[in-house]
Write a structure and sequence with these properties.
This protein has 156 residues and is of the alpha+beta class. It has 4 helices and 6 strands; from the N terminus they run ααββαββαββ. It has a single domain, classed as Roll (Thiol Ester Dehydrase, Chain A), CATH 3.10.129.10. A 6-stranded antiparallel β-sheet has the order 1-2-4-5-6-3.
Length: 156
Amino acid sequence: MQQTKSLSKMRWMLFLLGCFKIPLVGYVRPKLLALNDDEAVVRIKLRRRTKNHLKSMYFGALAVGADISGGIHAFYFAEKHGLKVSFAFKDMHANFLKRAESHILFKSLDGAVVEEAVLKSKSNGERVNQPVRVNAFNEQNEIVAEFVLTVSVKVR
């Protein structure tokens, strides 16, 4: 039951982030489907706002999905451990395998990596950088893109 409450709270935080801090996130309207200690799953629908001229998902929308699914764990673990964190992405490497011609699910299974970075930053007081992998799947469960983002976390 606690995870359901946490998921709804994280959905609300994502909505507020899109409204007030990062308008592009609000424009793309990602949906947080699952969030726990291990995984984060975000869906972005293919629609007018997210399509390119080839009727597939635009690169920017794919980047937003990777950003959210790779970074939401930082907020999740900060709340779980009662910490305030400052985080950003240092870099992003993307490999596009096929055109994203449907709604896309972004999955990150690196929750433990992010938690380790948060706890390490708490213990040493410095910024910690960790690579986080995100895979993007179409509705046929085929991988359309692979991302590696370097999350940079500092506990304040």
